[in-house]
Description:
Largest sheet: 6 strands, parallel
Oligomer: single chain
Helix content: 40-55%
Shape: elongated
Distance between the termini: 33 Å
Strand order of the largest sheet: 3-2-1-4-5-6
Strand content: 5-15%
Structural class: alpha/beta
Number of strands: 9
Order of helices and strands: EHEHEHEHEHEEHEHEHHHHHHH
CATH topology of the largest domain: Rossmann fold
Amino acid sequence: xxxxxxxxxxxxxxxxxxxxxxxxxxxxxxxxxxxxxxxxxxxxxxxxxxxxxxxxxxxxxxxxxxxxxxxxxxxxxxxxxxxxxxxxxxxxxxxxxxxxxxxxxxxxxxxxxxxxxxxxxxxxxxxxxxxxxxxxxxxxxxxxxxxxxxxxxxxxxxxxxxxxxxxxxxxxxxxxxxxxxxxxxxxxxxxxxxxxxxxxxxxxxxxxxxxxxxxxxxxxxxxxxxxxxxxxxxxxxxxxxxxxxxxxxxxxxxxxxxxxxxxxxxxxxxxxxxxxxxxxxxxxxxxxxxxxxxxxxxxxxxx
Length: 303
């Protein structure tokens, strides 16, 4: 298949190399010409512009820094992409941007799908990547085999923009958890526990043994908080003690303080004997959305 690949940075270059190893004819473009050298050496064609790369190609991939760069490339591609062509944008973009560009291209019979990836440069090199795709399901199905040559876990999330929403939600969770982990490790070490011992201890706990998102199927997604697995009043007690320790040690706990505020608000609702995860429903109220799935749909969700 003739494929154009535009954007050969830390993620784009190894993803393009995977497509080349799979036997596709690649036409590549990046503003920094040196990044294409290895791919050219393997037989790819160098293109002087995004438009030249995509001309007469059935399939186009872009891996760019952000919305501004995608908008710039769109200005070139819309003039050369033929009816029926498909463009998978691997960029972590904005939903508004991809939806707007999708609508403009749809008028010309061109399919744009947002397909941000997760797994980092090492995942791009090894092929262990998640690709979260939003857009026409039939187009996704047509090219799923090609997507699997880039990453081992392509997944059609929903209509255009859905893949980008999933990626932004994922990264928001990742960096928020990162901030929490920084707090608890500074607390543990300053309170006297050796770092490796603390790391091993935390990994042995309930939170450490389960993947972060897996725990959502137990309480939050089905909306099941009774009977409690761990009562809210006990969670509140533990957080109070943890923050008392932090004050004694002189460790600021901004994320921990927010967590305690959530538990205190839930306690004030009279939920002390319910499961501690009931505090998560406070955010549902604030956001004006109810996150619920029936139990039958959750069966097999972790497979």
